Amino acid sequence: MTNSGASSGRLYYESIAKDFTRQQIELPVAVSIFKGDIFTPPRSWGEQSYSNLVYWNELAQGGHFAAWEQPKLFVDEVRRGFGWARQK
């Protein structure tokens, strides 16, 4: 085992403590939507929550565990999403 259970569960614990209310995020954000995921939000939701949305892409392959299901596609998305940071 990787001892990652607590860190994985922390997201849910902290989100429930805040009643899942939307919070404005001003940091640069890259979003990749994998169509096989449980929930696929529309871009308009991302634009409402992220004032600095630098990348948005919707992919036909992959699901909730995209890094495991489509590792090459996932890595390509990370590179595309944060490629702007390498240019600075």
Automatic annotation (TrEMBL):
<dbReference type="InterPro" id="IPR029058">
    <property type="entry name" value="AB_hydrolase_fold"/>
</dbReference>
<protein>
    <recommendedName>
        <fullName>Epoxide hydrolase</fullName>
    </recommendedName>
</protein>
<comment type="similarity">
    <text>Belongs to the peptidase S33 family.</text>
</comment>
<keyword id="KW-0378">Hydrolase</keyword>
